[in-house]
Amino acid sequence: MTQNTPPPHPGFHTGSHQDPDPAAKPLLSLDLRRDMGAFTLKVKIDAGPGITTLFGRSGAGKSTIVAMLAGLLTPDSGHIRVHGKTLFDSASGIDIAPEHRHIGYVFQDARLFPHLSVAANLRYGMNRQVAAKRADSYARVVELLGLEHMLARRPGRLSGGEKQRVAIARALLSNPRILLMDEPLASLDAARKSDVLPYIERLATDFDVPVVYVSHAIEEVVRLSDTLVLIADGRVAAQGTVEDLMARLDLAPLTGRYEAGAVLTPTVAGHQTDHHLTRLSLLGHDMYVPALDMAPGTPVRLRVRARDVSLALTRPTDTSILNILACRVHEIETRNGEHNNSALDKTSHVEVALRVTAKNDGTANTHPQTVLARITRKSLHDLKLARQTPVYALIKAVAIDRHSLGGLGRGAKRTNSLKK
Amino acid sequence: MSWSLTPLEWEALRLSLKVAAWATLVSLPVGIWLAWVLTRRRFIGHGLLNALVHLPLVVPPVVVGYVLLMVLGRGGPVGAWLYENFGISLAFTWIGAVVAAAVMAFPLMVRAMRLSLETVDPGLEQAGRTLGAGPVRVFFTITLPLMLPGVITGAILAFARALGEFGATITFVANIPGQTRTLPLALYTFTQVPGGETSALRLAVLAVAVAVIALIASEALARRAHALTRGLGAEPRP
Questions:
Q1: What is the pLDDT of residues A103-131, one digit of tens each?
Q2: Bridge partners (DSSP) listed for residue A52
């Protein structure tokens, strides 16, 4: 069930020095099957550098996949290869023990050893590193995750966010070839989440370790993913970039219907400090969002919820709405192959996918930009919307919160970390 | 009446402590291993092994002593083999008393350890494996330290039980002064002779005192170990 992964877009990873080589072997290649009782898990995933997120509902099989990767669960059949090394292969009887897989694992519940100090927890897996490098990497990881003040403490006296930071540091110090993170933020409240997220964002770039990140929270996925893998009922429903998958109407039931929204990839154009706004540039259009701490030229990821988008046939002039994008209707949602006006379809609203019309063609980002809008069936009918109808998408700047904004893949994160 | 112990009482007390200490020490590694096997492993015969371990708790001690005599006595299959090949005789020696005490105390030890091991999250052991530790290192650096409260409680319970062992001991190794006459056997002997009431009472008080000390020590130790493993103990030096 190979999904057609879109080719890397030139200029998409602006700032990145790692141009993806299409001929290169994937860092991680897995093809697994396991009987789960209620359903059979059957997945095939190829992942490259950066953060690969496995996204799906609870019970879809995401955690099972990472547990099999780490060797904590045995697949019924299939293979796992990391950096070209086979860790599991049912055909040739290879099944490397977890301790020899060199795979770091950050669990949802941190799993720090309660009888050891934070420092001793950190050192537990360090003997896998070359002895000469240990002191250096220890100091670096402790500094990057901000653990200096808690080294002597016991895990029992740490907050949830601190525990997860120690768990991440501990996994990093075991010198992993790949780092698995199984919903590391799920047990944290919103404030703790935003404490830990920046550290995770920096992992793939600062430590150059590929990350497989399991989540069922769309904000984390939008912020972190380089590659997004949608998992549903033990299958890979789709695999690709966040921008492409979030724009697909057919995947809306999986990406979350209520929270549905496409991801735009503008670049920072400037700051309006007196209004606490940041101006972004998207295909020549100006967009305004609450102030961002990012340098001009930085590509960002912007998730716009479908329910925050209104449509107009002519450009409104006297309006409080700051973001008005000229678009064309690309696709109108049809459910289960029914016609939109079918009497059987009880919902009052419909989702419309729009393509942003480029203002100054060719200069900026050439990747098509999609906006999803959720409008009533009545509006759809009254405005007589159809494919290719020119419309204006209206987005309130205040509807775009911090949680909807993230760096764009490895390129943007690198720019960020250089800036700091 | 003198407060100091008579040489006879000393002999019984020393022998009791020696037998109980050896019985505890010898059964400790076996007990930890069995507690681990019974808690962490599922296999055919699991129930049977579990029943076997707990058997001495429910059958009369005399029966246990009799079985030991049949198997380990000079005429028993194992006893004869031991004597012919190594010249070791268990019956009617203090080593036999150690075996009897160990077997009788074993179920208590394993029970306490299992209870403690069940509270150790297997997820922590998995975490250890992903950090590069093999099963043996995981056991000694994670599982064993975390089940320490149970190991301490189990050891002290076994020690106390071994101190009080009577039925299996007298059946297996008889009542030989200086060899197998432990505190309870000495007490029993005094109750069988006319005018031995005072001596019996003194030994009874002694036995109670030793048991109370053992229990208090066990509580204090287990509490400290518990605090340590829950991550709330005194801050260790970095």
A1: 999 999 999 999 999 999 999 998 877 77
A2: A212, A227
A22 pLDDT more than 80:
no
pLDDT in tens, A305-361: 888 898 989 888 888 888 899 999 998 887 644 444 444 456 788 888 888 888 765
Range of the domain at B32: 16-229
Q: What is the pLDDT of residues B113-149, one digit of tens each?
A: 999 999 999 999 999 999 999 999 999 999 999 999 8
Query: Given CB atoms, is A171 within the 8 Å cutoff of chain B?
Result: yes
Domains identified in chain B, total number: 1
Return contacts of A286-291, CB within 8 angstroms, 24+ apart: A287/A322, A287/A323, A287/A325, A287/A395, A288/A322, A288/A323, A288/A397, A289/A397, A289/A400, A289/A405, A290/A397, A290/A398, A290/A400, A290/A401, A290/A402
Instruction: Give domain status of residue B7, yes or no.
Output: no
Set out the domains of chain A in order of their start, with CATH numbers: 28-240 (3.40.50.300), 263-419 (2.40.50.100)
Is B237 contained in some domain?
A: no
B132 contacts in chain A (CB < 8 Å): 99-100, 102, 125, 127-128, 174
Indicate the pLDDT class of residue A363, thresholds 50, 70 and 90. low
B84 inside 8 A of chain A by CB: no
**Cβ <8 Å between A174 and B131:** yes
Q: Which of A235-244, A363-372, B44-53 has the highest mean pLDDT?
A: B44-53
- A124 in reach of chain B (CB within 8 A): yes
| Residue B78 within a domain | yes
Please compute, for residue B130, the number of CA atoms within 13 A of its CA located in the half-sphere on the CB side. Answer: 33
Cβ distance of A154 and B235 shorter than 8 Å: yes
Task: Nearest by CB to A115, from B134, B146, B238: name it.
Answer: B146
By the 10 Å C-beta count (0-12 exposed, 13-18 middle, 19+ buried), A203 is classed as: buried
Please, which residues have CB within 8 angstroms of residue A349's CB and are 6 or more apart in sequence? A374, A375, A376, A377
Q: Tally C-beta pairs within 8 A across A and B.
A: 85
Provide, as residue numbers in chain A, all residues whose Cβ is less than 8 Å from the Cβ of B144.
none
- A113:B128 CB<8 A: yes
Q: Does A74 touch chain B (CB under 8 A)?
A: no
Chain B CA closest to residue A170? B131
A residues 379-398 closer than 8 Å to B (CB):
none
pTM, two decimal places? 0.78
B121 is a domain residue: yes
Whichever domain contains B221, its CATH number is 1.10.3720.10
